Amino acid sequence: MIRPLTILLTLLLSGCLAAQRPPRLSSPDENADGSYTFRYYAPDADTVLLHGEFLAAPQIMDRDADGVWTATVADIEPDIYPYFFEQDGVQLADPNNTHVFANERFKRSIVEVRGDGAQVHSLQDVPHGQVRYEYYPSATLDTTRRMLVYTPPGFEMNGNQRYPVLYLIHGGSDTEETWYQVGRANFIADNLIAAGQAEPMLIVMPYGNVRPAPMADFTRDVIDDIIPYIEANFPVVGDAEHRAVAGFSVGGGQTLNIGLMNTDKFAYVCSYAPWTRTEEFQRNFGDWEPDAAAINENLRLFTLSVGTDDFLYESVLQNIADFRAEGIELETHITDGGHTWMNCKKYLATTLRQIFQPAR
Amino acid sequence: MIRPLTILLTLLLSGCLAAQRPPRLSSPDENADGSYTFRYYAPDADTVLLHGEFLAAPQIMDRDADGVWTATVADIEPDIYPYFFEQDGVQLADPNNTHVFANERFKRSIVEVRGDGAQVHSLQDVPHGQVRYEYYPSATLDTTRRMLVYTPPGFEMNGNQRYPVLYLIHGGSDTEETWYQVGRANFIADNLIAAGQAEPMLIVMPYGNVRPAPMADFTRDVIDDIIPYIEANFPVVGDAEHRAVAGFSVGGGQTLNIGLMNTDKFAYVCSYAPWTRTEEFQRNFGDWEPDAAAINENLRLFTLSVGTDDFLYESVLQNIADFRAEGIELETHITDGGHTWMNCKKYLATTLRQIFQPAR
After folding, report:
1. CDD domains in the record, alphabetically (chains A, B) (predicted)?
2. Core-most of A178, A260, B66, B282, by most CB within 10 Å?
3. What is the mean pLDDT of residues B287-299?
4. What DSSP string describes B60-94?
5. B2 at the A interface (CB within 8 A)?
6. pLDDT tens-digit profile of A261-319?
């Protein structure tokens, strides 16, 4: 007979855990009518606001007698959205939601509004690939760095199949985890591969920030460290026809620097809402006099994507015009919406359907 | 010549990003003298406190003219610690630190105080294994669940080597990521394997919470779903001599339920500061009349670990006495410290040195 110390533990718990932790809340919850309820415990708060990219404006939450603040939002378009609470002016992630937006400058939570659950980024009943953390030596940066690698369903490290590779770069204050945790690159790939709309591929998600090193060192890290590491350690095809590079915002600018300066190494360059106001971009493209014919010959696909509400919309239109003025062939994906991860997922899904396809 | 819209972007940035985001801060920073500095931007705050498990009491932070609050802490024993800020009564994770404590009920940040960087949990210059996210079907819970799987350096999915497996369970409000993000199970294994002190093994880190299902359903999920999935999809040895189960707090109680009720399936059962006030534990052990001789014969190792400052210390001492009163052979690891992840890492390092070793 193994007995716990019931009375003692009750006292200890009430004095210890209870004092350390608020009550367990379920937040967010999907309701039977498809609306979502957000909950936050703050008995001493004067006001609590819900901020979310599914809201046009912050929503005031309602307090109950136990100090739990609640907001219910209906008719949200199915997608994955960042949100956060604001208690008396202090912004914070949802304490009860384990899905956190991987970012260096803020903490946000993530809610998936599933709808019928058939979105391209949703966990569906299809074969699933794996996402793994890899630790690679960066000679460029003289350190060991972490990246995520997606391998498709049925992947065999020592099998006969050899795969193409997409190098996928996050935004400026994001991390190597953002394309997985927020962008759902793995489920988008799983679903498109299962539907026969994308080729089985590896997706390599490096950490694109190299502060305090100059940003151009990341380009060197990709070319000199990451690609050789991947090609030495995974069953991939190591030629331009089987390499793609894509990225969002600052990573979209890095994509242009990495891809267009190395069209002998990448046949697919897909830039999402690129941020191009960088010293590296100016050095590469400021006085650019490209051999457009050679670049067009090397590139199987060059795309620029942006939303009409993106604060970079005009800038990207200018990039598009400037590249075309140089005789560079490119495809544009102009969408609704802004500089958001909702759009990132759309751009990636479009890209995955296009790269590594039979020659046009 | 590709030119960005300099003036427009400057205006848009100042009106857009600047309004959305505080200035970039580096926090925490290790200083030349080995002290650590924490920074938090809150121009409107009256008071900001630093809470950390390296502090005996919260430390008041100092505000500078720009609204940046700073605290510097010296002489911290090298380890990995949870910490958080408290702005005017609101507790939140460090917005500038991407290392977040994976937990369902709070958001904390994590700081590694490296010292000479030679701690068993530190990233060292040794061969590194991989940690991968796996999605497995749980018939028990009728859903697809996520778990993390550590594979050791040199692991080959289709090679000749077959590995033993440790099933490692988190605490009550933690997640499947906590043993990786906070417990550093991968680096502890990398370092001990490199030193020849641990056998190459897989470490499977499932999600132990099954709310609203009864906790006992997790035991069924492990036995009926997780173990068959791992043994069908990884090169492992599927017998008791090559299976271990370990866990912390609520997971330490689950470890006793899973392991001691199934000594035909696990030869190694290692419970860290177990929480045993559960219906499942009462049902299994309340009127337990074990065949101690058979259990002792089956178990190669049974350990109970706890810290002398742990709020469960007396409870675990009672567990130890009760198991011994039933004739069950066990080894105890009594340490300093409390119910913390600093102790979790110590217990895991001790366990990894003991399991899957040649017969005693």
Report:
1. E_set_Esterase_like_N (cd11294)
2. A178
3. 96
4. EPEE-TTSEEEEEE--PPSEEEEEEEEETTEEE--
5. yes
6. 999 999 999 999 999 999 999 999 999 999 999 999 999 999 999 999 999 999 999 99
Residues of chain A in contact with residue B175, where contact means CB-CB under 8 angstroms, are 98
DSSP one-letter string for A124-159:
-SS---EEEEEEEEETTTTEEEEEEEEE-TT--TTS
Q: Is A310 near chain B, with CB under 8 Å?
A: no
Q: How far is CA A314 from CA A311, A319, B128, B242, B357, in A?
A: 8, 9, 45, 61, 64
Report the CATH superfamily, name and number, of domain A24-113. Answer: Immunoglobulins (2.60.40.10)
Q: For the segment B51-71, what is each residue's pLDDT rounded down to a tens digit? A: 999 999 999 999 999 999 999
For chain B, count helices (H), then strands (E): 11, 18
Q: Is B125 on the interface with A (CB under 8 A)?
A: yes
Question: pTM here?
Answer: 0.92
The domain over range B130-354 is classified in CATH as 3.40.50.10490: no
Interface of B with A in 191-230 (CB under 8 A): none
**A168 Cβ neighbours under 8 A, 6+ residues apart:** A179, A185, A203, A204, A205, A245, A246, A247, A348
Q: Give a three-class secondary structure readout of B218-242.
A: HHHHHHHHHHHHHHHHCCECCCHHH
**A27 and chain B in contact, CB less than 8 A:** no
pLDDT digits (tens, 9 = 90+) for B168-206: 999 999 999 999 999 999 999 999 999 999 999 999 999
- Do B130-354 and B24-113 fall under one CATH topology? no
Q: What is the residue extent of each domain of chain B?
A: 24-113, 130-354
**What ipTM describes this predicted complex?**
0.89
Residues from chain A contacting residue B95 (CB–CB below 8 Å): 105-107
